[in-house]
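Recap for those who missed Tuesday's class. We walked through two folding examples back to back. For each one, the amino acid string is listed first and its predicted structure tokens come directly after. Nothing is annotated here on purpose, so try labeling regions yourself before you check the end of the notes.
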Amino acid sequence: MNSKLISAISLCRKAGKLKMGFDVVKEEVKYGNADVVLLCSDLSERSQQQMQYICQENQVPVARLPVTMEELWSVAGRKCGIFAVEDRGFCKMICSLCSPEDNPQDSKMKK
């Protein structure tokens, strides 16, 4: 499961639809460009809380990934635990590969 998820995130990055890092993702959420925000499983509690608050204010769904920052290092090119997906198709594909309890509800996704 994780290899398919990592491949989907890699494809999203190559298509230019993946933003990485707290500050970059924060700006994308505030400008309304993010369809979903992805958080790695080993992201610090403080960063998770801050990003969830920002996403809640801007009505952007958050999905927790069942992978660590270390596992996504090859995809991201750097150690990063927060990602924004800026394409509805990639958003659906990546969220479908997450476990159901980590998957944002369809009603929260941008239409």
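Example two. Treat it independently of the first, because the proteins are unrelated.
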Amino acid sequence: MSDPAYEAISKARRQAGSGNPKGAVQTLEAYLATDPHNTKPRLELARIAIYDLDDMEYGLMQLDIVQDLEPDNKDALKAAVTVMSKHKKYNKETAEKFERLLSMESSAELYNLYAKFLRRQMADFKKAGEYYEKALVLSPNDYDIHQNYAVLLLNDLRDYEKARRELEYLLSVKPHDPVLKKNYDRLMKQKFDKNGNLKKPIFGFRR
């Protein structure tokens, strides 16, 4: 037996993949006119609208409809925060959606995404660090999370001991990366003495 929703999604993906996102949107809209409560084709419509048609507002509207139909739909929430977390105007709504997601799921992927949002949009560097650490507990070998955490430690938290450890981990994975080596060498030269100890501030001592 054929599945009309699956067929509509498959057709729309082919259309989007061949450079016809408007046709893909029309295909899914036509199907949803007959089955408006089906969230799978609506999620696909949102994805194509955002990433292929470059119509973020329309895509987010579709995700809102999915969340109205299924308030605990994690796919819709994740899709929404992934897009909205890049735009400061959505900060309040994005934070609320993250709170809902965090109450439903504990994953390195989600913690990493939340930490990036906290750093870039909310400037809550301390909390961002906490969530990067939570992410690394769940996924200790994730290079991208280590890299994101290293940037936070170096540029925002200025915790040079931890930054050193993160850069050393990154170099153990990519020992010939010239940018990593340059950042590590600069850190060691500027912040550590010849014995590898953290330098004291020029004015006064660390408390």
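Answers for example two:
The mean pLDDT is 95.
DSSP finds eleven helices and no strands in the chain.
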